[in-house]
Design goal:
Blueprint lengths: L1 H6 L3 H55 L5 H10 L15 H23 L5 H34 L2 H30 L7 H10 L5 E4 L2 E8 L2 E8 L9 H11 L5 E8 L9 E5 L8 H13 L3 E8 L3
Parallel strand pairs: 4-6
Antiparallel strand pairs: 1-2, 2-3, 5-6
Length: about 325
């Protein structure tokens, strides 16, 4: 024993080493739990913030439907916020576009039906805005539900790894949630948003030209630009609508001799790029699930038409 004490530097150093080992043992045992508690607190606070944002968007939409909503209206909107869309089976990619198109049209019909039921006396433009607002509100509500799900899952499993993964993604999720939150309010009120840059440019080109509805919620007019005959298309306004631009382009190409197809849309800019900067490229500049873009690409392939695109860069939020 004397030899052992000498190796450790005497009785005092032995006690120091024992205290040191006990301290580090406790530290390594409790530190992960301490970190988990800290991260969980941060995620739960974010979940509560998202839930508050979702509740505010819901209340905002209800208030625009009726200044004095009854309990039935509130319950109807709350239930509709649980609405979901199941993607079609993609094991065999053949025909997936038509399947997706059918699902999207069914979704539109459900939104139309719900808004007509909840606000039968509202004009068509405000109904269109409410539909867009509901779509944004459902997205905000879904984000809040997903974050809450992970909060409860972390509490249940005590998984530090899951908590760390969610924490690392929180800054990006918060940016998306903020964009959806502000966008939902703007869409419900019928205010222009970044994606409206395409219709804005089309309206500028059309000026006071008489338009006709060539396809569902898509207006078209013939204009002359630098001596060239052009068919300008835009979604019907001023309410929030998307229309069927792919089907409209398909119809025009079949009826007229078209030289090229040009699409203009907003695009999310990279950090460091200037907001409002313009870039030119090829392809179809069009967001969404890709159904309408696919129709345009198919008709371009069939008739061997060049596809030009122009994007205006802006931040998502």
């Amino acid at each position: 024993m004397d030899i052992l004490f000498q190796l450790w530097g005497g009785n005092d150093n032995w006690l120091s080493w024992l205290f040191f080992l006990i301290f580090w043992g406790i530290f390594f045992f409790f530190y992960p739990r301490l970190m988990l508690s800290q991260i969980l607190w941060r995620i739960e606070r974010t979940a509560e913030e998202f839930e508050q944002m979702a509740a505010e968007t819901k209340a905002f939409i209800i208030q625009h439907i009726s200044k004095k909503p009854d309990k039935k209206s509130k319950d109807s909107v709350s239930n509709f916020f649980e609405f979901f869309v199941i993607e079609p089976v993609a094991l065999d990619p053949f025909g997936i576009v038509k399947k997706l198109d059918l699902i999207i049209q069914n979704e539109k019909e459900r939104f139309h039906y719900f808004v007509n039921q909840i606000a039968p006396d509202m004009d068509s433009e405000n109904k269109a805005n409410i539909e867009m607002g509901l779509a944004g509100g459902i997205e905000m509500y879904t984000i809040a539900k997903i974050i809450r799900h992970y909060v409860e899952l972390i509490k249940e499993t005590k998984s530090y790894q899951i908590a760390l993964i969610i924490q690392m993604q929180l800054p990006l999720i918060e940016k998306i949630a903020k964009a959806v939150y502000e966008g939902t309010k703007s869409l419900t009120k019928g205010e222009p948003i970044g994606d409206g840059i395409g219709p804005l440019i089309a309206a500028k080109l059309l000026e006071n030209k008489k338009t006709k509805e060539i396809e569902e919620d898509i207006l078209m007019a013939e204009v002359s630009i630098e001596g060239r005959k052009c068919f300008v298309l835009k979604a019907k306004g001023p309410g929030g609508r998307l229309g069927r631009p792919g089907k409209a382009v398909e119809k025009i190409v079949k009826q007229h001799k078209i030289a090229r197809i040009i699409t203009i849309d907003a695009a999310a800019k990279l950090e460091g790029e200037k907001t409002g900067s313009i870039a030119e490229g090829v392809g179809v500049a069009m967001g969404g699930p890709g159904v309408e873009r696919s129709y345009i690409e198919d008709v371009a392939v069939k008739y061997n038409l060049p596809l030009d695109s122009i994007i205006i860069k802006m931040k998502p939020e």
